[in-house]
Design brief:
Blueprint (H helix, E strand, L loop, with lengths): L9 E3 L2 H16 L9 E6 L3 H11 L4 E10 L2 E9 L3 H4 L5 E8 L3 H9 L4 E7 L9 E5 L5 E3 L16
Parallel strand pairs: 1-8, 2-3, 2-5, 5-6, 6-7
Antiparallel strand pairs: 3-4
């Protein structure tokens, strides 16, 4: 078997694509709005901040908070740890609250988040098979072995061709 170069099993997401996909997520969430509307949106930082901002705008959700969960050290996954919680006086058990993240991978981060807000609706832009059960709404599924390159992790630069020459 030939070794793969990092970009061969990568899914590169541009700012334009992220914006389109986050808007598509908002459109899917319209039909799932609880009676009385969404009370708040909680972004899982850092990756969920950009999609949550777009979803909040599209669905006119004005109360926005964050939960910070560290589960990656560069590209290796570690045990998830909550670094910052949302204002639980506002969020409560999550009833009427929308949790947004960029991606669910193994689902371990969302397991921790769900312990804090068990009745919240969880939505991600992208989903991998191992974590799909942790998410009620998502836009695009990618294979478990695909690495997603988000726009905040990339810079435009010349890349040498990897085959031929």
């Amino acid at each position: 078997m030939m070794d793969r170069l990092p970009h061969e099993k990568g899914f590169h997401v541009s700012w334009d694509q992220l914006h389109r996909d986050a808007r598509a997520l908002a459109w899917r969430l319209q039909d799932k709005t609880p009676e009385g509307g969404w009370r708040a949106i909680v972004a899982i930082t850092r990756g969920g901040m950009a999609p949550a901002m777009i979803v909040a705008r599209e669905l006119d959700i004005r109360t926005v908070d964050t939960i910070s969960v560290k589960s990656y050290n560069h590209q290796s996954q570690t045990a998830p740890v909550v670094i910052k919680s949302p204002d639980m006086a506002i969020i409560g058990d999550g009833t009427g609250v929308l949790i947004v993240d960029d991606l669910v991978d193994t689902g371990r981060t969302l397991e921790v988040v769900r312990q804090h807000m068990p009745k919240a609706h969880v939505a991600t832009v992208y989903a991998k098979p191992m974590g799909r059960t942790q998410v009620e709404t998502f836009v695009t599924e990618v294979s478990q072995d695909t690495w997603i390159f988000f726009p905040w992790d990339m810079a435009l630069q010349y890349v040498e061709p990897y085959r031929g020459a």
